[in-house]
Amino acid sequence: MIAVEQKLKSICQTKALIFMKAHSERLPTKNMKKLCGRPLFHWILDSLSEAKYINEIIINTDSQEIAESATNNYDVTI
């Protein structure tokens, strides 16, 4: 079973594309708000990083702070 999963992962290239704005109209700096001491977007990136069949995480952002935090803490493409 493990060999099949590894083969599937190498054949199926699944990329996650995440849009993270610096400023939300309804909740300013929403993605940087803390939940249990960590920025909200870190929780999203944790889930994506642990996802079995996601090979690459791509972040589209207009925030230097989000870009720096994401690249310093995760294997992502900005």
TrEMBL record:
InterPro entries: CMP-NeuNAc_synthase, Cytidylyl_trans, Nucleotide-diphossugar_trans
Gene3D superfamilies: Spore Coat Polysaccharide Biosynthesis Protein SpsA, Chain A (3.90.550.10)
Pfam hit, one: CTP_transf_3
GO molecular function: N-acylneuraminate cytidylyltransferase activity
Transmembrane segments: none
PANTHER family, alphabetized: HAD SUPERFAMILY MEMBERS CMAS AND KDSC, N-ACYLNEURAMINATE CYTIDYLYLTRANSFERASE-RELATED
Protein name: Acylneuraminate cytidylyltransferase
